[in-house]
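Name: Transglycosylase SLT domain-containing protein
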Amino acid sequence: MFVSRIARRIASPKKALASAAVAAATAGMVLTAAPAHAATADSAASAQAIAHKMIPSAAQYNAFSKIVEHESGWNVTATNSSSGAYGLVQALPGSKMATAGADWKTNPKTQIKWGLDYMNSRYGSPTAAWAFWQANGWY
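Structure predicted for Transglycosylase SLT domain-containing protein:
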């Protein structure tokens, strides 16, 4: 990738990344950050299985899954180093998820419940939240 080649050639990768982001923005491109920590295959599969049980509609599950994949890579402890957003659905602040359960920091079921409630209350459904995400790059 373009950014990686610049980062390897320049002594300060952060400056290179910032320059690449400015260049991309000028060109009308959007750079998205990867989750801070990749989820293990087992933990991601476990969280996905929980979500499947909680979201019986295939269309709603698929939309929810796409958002979570983009936001956290299905990593229950993903933390955005810039904003502090946390968890599968990148709640900001993460402590908002305490309304769904005291175990919000580590329990995918609690985070999924909170995320579903958020998507339903703010957008009407996960599919509507995904449509918003596609249009804006965030939800």
